[in-house]
Amino acid sequence: MTHQSTLRRSLLLAPSLAVILVLIGLPLCLMGWISFLQKGGSAGVDWNSAPSAANYVRLVWEEDFDGTMILNTSYLVIFLRSVAQAAVTMLLSLLLGLPVALWIASLSRTGRDIMLLLITIPFWTNLLVRNYAWLIILREDGWVAQAVNALSPFGPVQLLYNDVAVAIGLTYSFLPFMILPLYTVFEKFHWRLLDAAHDLGATRARALRRVVLPIATPGIVAGCLLVFIPCLGAFVTPALLGGGKTLMLGNIIQMQFGASRNWPFGAALSVVLLAVMLIVMTGMALWRNRRTA
């Protein structure tokens, strides 16, 4: 490679690198720096305070009345609840999205286009509006609650303001992010492979396990990442459908940058959330590379 071609390639990459550094790298560095500062008096952050790790220590420890540090598991519980809620949403989306994507891929060209249009229609409305719609559907005197209570042998069942309502809302919101990557994989699927598996004596379950799932692995990995990662930081759905009873990490971060005006602690929570996301993405990428090697 000549010097001229190297220079030309560097010049072509320069605008992209500048955009990444300015729009992604700079805000992340600023957030990381704020996480080491102290809360300001009237403003959200005291820019003249000495950097310290106090905000990260506060995630696990708190100061008692006599000045001793005691273990505080409140944020750890919220973090674990966020991970569990995101994992449940990811599994529900996978269980619902896999057969839907496989079915769409089996339709004609017109049928596929219509179904893809129907799947993307919810994105035409705001997420807030969609969550308010679930508030109406799951309300105490709604037809869903009446049907569930009529069938429940344990008495009245509350559908709103609990983890179940949050899981339903998150699954509804992020289900298209699971279906679309899976459909992209199944669109190129050769259905003769299933016929060959059946001719060789494979049952439907075995054909699904030995033929469909291995081919769908890239779509499953992509869909799980697209669902799990934004779910970790979700705050609109837990705030509305959880009613403030099931707080997630996104709600705590929003409170710190909002009512509490404690930007450094909110930045520390954001850095921890970002680190968890990076670990999950790196782990799944390594697992995928090991399978394809």
Word description of this protein:
The chain is an all-alpha fold. The protein is built from twelve helices and two strands. A two-stranded antiparallel sheet has the order 1-2. Strand 1 and strand 2 form a beta hairpin. The longest helix is centred in the first third of the chain and has 32 residues, at 3-34. The protein is globular, with a radius of gyration of 24 Å. The two termini are 29 Å apart.
Short description:
It contains 12 helices and 2 strands.
What's the structural blueprint in terms of helices and strands?
Blueprint: H1 3-34, H2 54-57, E1 61-63, E2 69-71, H3 74-105, H4 109-120, H5 127-137, H6 143-151, H7 163-186, H8 192-199, H9 204-232, H10 236-241, H11 249-257, H12 263-292
Helix pairs in contact: 3-7, 3-9, 7-9, 8-9, 9-12, 11-12
Given the structure, what is the number of helices? 12
Main sheet properties: 2 strands, antiparallel
Q: In total, how many beta strands?
A: 2
- Beta fraction: under 5%
Radius of gyration over C-alpha positions, nearest whole angstrom: 24 Å
Tags for this entry?
about 70% helix; globular; two-stranded antiparallel sheet; about 290 residues
